[in-house]
Amino acid sequence: MLMQKQDAALLVVDIQEKLLPAVYDADGLLQRSRWLVQAARDHELPIVFSEQYPRGLGGTVAALREAAPQAPVVDKLHFSCVAAGCLPPQLLAKRQIIICGMEAHVCVLQTALELLETGKQVFVAADAVSSRKASDVELALARMRAAGAAIVSREMVLFELLRQSGGDHFKQMSQRYLMGEQP
């Protein structure tokens, strides 16, 4: 199954101020997640940010919010966004959910598994998820793959949503996301 622009949305799970410094490759996660948020915005996908207990863990990192200022932010106490019942209609209306965020083995995993249970096609951007330990990321990705999630890269998302080369949109996206040094 390929990602389809008209069927997809991006869910950014819990990349929050106070927890981000504790995860493996925090700076890289932030840069790669921002790249993915900007690409999703430029493809006009619905984008949603979730926050786990924001009173204690802080809000979504400002660099991400600035990349998609119109995107809704939902808060939760459940680890899974599905169990929390916090996902807005514009995301739930899509049959394909692209996920990035943290922690891969907790909130990302539980959200992905429960989205699969609801019949959604789930795409986890492996280069835009993290946990406090790299081994937890590996285990989470393996478990999500075994459950039926497609494990993808940010560039897979970009190219599948583009579908073809040529034209102004491709040129703009290519210059913005493929030229020069990328995170």
UniProtKB/TrEMBL annotation:
Molecular-function annotations in GO: hydrolase activity
Keywords: Hydrolase
Domain (Isochorismatase-like): residue spans on this chain: 8-155
Coiled-coil regions listed in the entry: none
Gene3D superfamilies on file: Isochorismatase-like
Superkingdom in the source lineage: Bacteria
PANTHER family: HYDROLASE, ISOCHORISMATASE DOMAIN-CONTAINING PROTEIN 2
UniProt protein name: Hydrolase
Organism classification: Bacteria, Pseudomonadati, Pseudomonadota, Betaproteobacteria, Neisseriales
